[in-house]
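INTERNAL TRANSFER SHEET
From: sequence group
To: structure group
Subject: Bicarbonate transport ATP-binding protein CmpC

Please process the attached sequence and return the structure record in the designated field. Keep the field labels unchanged so the import script can parse them.
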Amino acid sequence: MRIFAGLIFPDTGTVSLAGKPIEGPDTDISMVFQSYALYPWLTVYDNIALACSHKTCHRN
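Return from structure group:
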């Protein structure tokens, strides 16, 4: 599931979905984690900013 979501990459070979190679996270694909998680490739600030980019999150 993490490979299809573009969160991790296979050790060998390639993975494609609907004929398109999966090269990283895509806005058309989502994944619900069973536990809270941060994106390891983002900084702490960027992880928080991503959560606050939702329309219902207020700046203060």
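Handover comment: The chain has a mean pLDDT of 81. DSSP finds one helix and two strands in the chain.
Transfer complete.
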